[in-house]
Amino acid sequence: MKLQNESIDIVDDTESKKDHLFLTENSVLRYLTFSALYLAQGIPEGITYFAIPAWLAMNNKTPVEIASFVAVIGIPWSFKVLIAPLMDRFTILSMGRKRPWVIFGQLGLIVSFLAIGLVHDPLNNLNGLMIAGFFISFFGAFQDVATDGMVIDVVPINEQARANGLMWGTKIIGTSLSVVIGTSLINILGFTIAISSLSIAVAFIILVPIFFRERPGEKIMPWMAGEASDDSKKAQLGSWKEIFKSLFKVIILPSTIIMGIATVISGTMYGLIDTLLPIFTIQELGWTNTSFSQVYSITTLVGGFFGMFAGGALVDFFGDKKMILIYLIITTLLIGGFALLPDFWKNDTFVFGFILLYYLFYTFLCIAMFAASMKLCWQVVAATQFTLFMALSNMGRAVGSGLVGTFKEMMSWDYVLIITAISPLLTIVFIKFINFKKQRETINQFKI
């Protein structure tokens, strides 16, 4: 009898240990998993959005050519709103609601990232570079939609701000490291070897969604043992009619509409600054692509580090809305102040300070905006609704990126920067009208 009891205890201990490998059961595992997946997004983004544009600027490509490249690779991020309903409607439920899509997106990201390194004569083949960059962004967006949907599914609301801080901070760190390492490798070893080397790190991260499951009892792979959990079955909608009916109910709420407008405007600012900085510093201030990548890496690393450990905590302590408004005010003053002080642009320390402060508050703002957007979502269509917010932001980002070349041909850099500072100022106006409490109360009354 004693031996039987001991064997039961051993089985119980084994099951208890296994429970720690499920995202719904282990907060540390949730943070590590989502941080790793965001790191996988950050590495190719650093190359496509910053290292390649800086490299093109260093090789005397025009602002219009560079802005066109950035705008094209930004387009798939606006398509996320078309991808998300597919994920809410179809999945291998026995593997989890979003995990199969995360694995698929990560696999596509690996292949497409390898492919851009194979573009022949990339400096004189911008069309080829754009096409390869487009597919990197497409699969990056795919993985991003699935990851965000899984976050809303398995992370409790009271942990979402902290999770967003870690995720976004990790992505920023991955982006910044890939910029400085990628730029050095491109200059030393050439474009193809540099990209191939960095793609190895992205490839390893696919092991994370493969080995860690969403809920107890689910399959690791389709051919293995396991079944869909009751929670997944309840949350999964069975028809397109249910999905779009549910989505319509939540997107017509006032706070959803206001947040959508705010994300478009703030996204325009992100696109303008991210595209403007490598062109401005290299072609106007005389920096090299190496010096830009080093400054970008240092400043975004600082932003990512503080974002990981302070971004979510500040939102938890002071509230989403208050912190978003503070970050927007500071960002407006930063960009506007820099625009009005052109005599200081030749001072590298002054420019470095501006970039450092911008990316610090940019990181904090993104964390707060993401956490706030998640709070406005209804779980049954969370992937689609949250993706709608992010697609609108990326739409604004693509527009902002494309406008840099046009603005620069029409006016000087100080006026381009002043126009950029209007974006966060307008965002403030809309954020003030969002009512999170009323939105949650309304959503809680919804029936599937």
TrEMBL record:
Key words of the record: Membrane, Transmembrane, Transmembrane helix, Transport
Domain Major facilitator superfamily (MFS) profile residue range list: 255-448
SUPFAM superfamilies per the UniProt record, alphabetical: MFS general substrate transporter
The organism's taxonomic lineage, starting at the top: Bacteria, Pseudomonadati, Bacteroidota, Flavobacteriia, Flavobacteriales
Origin: domain of life: Bacteria
Pfam families, per database record: MFS_1
TM stretches of this protein: 66-87, 99-119, 125-142, 163-182, 188-212, 250-273, 293-317, 324-345, 351-371, 376-395, 415-434
Stated name of the protein: MFS transporter
InterPro entries: AmpG_permease/AT-1, MFS, MFS_dom, MFS_trans_sf
Main subcellular location: membrane
Compartments in which it is found: Membrane
Membrane topology value: Multi-pass membrane protein
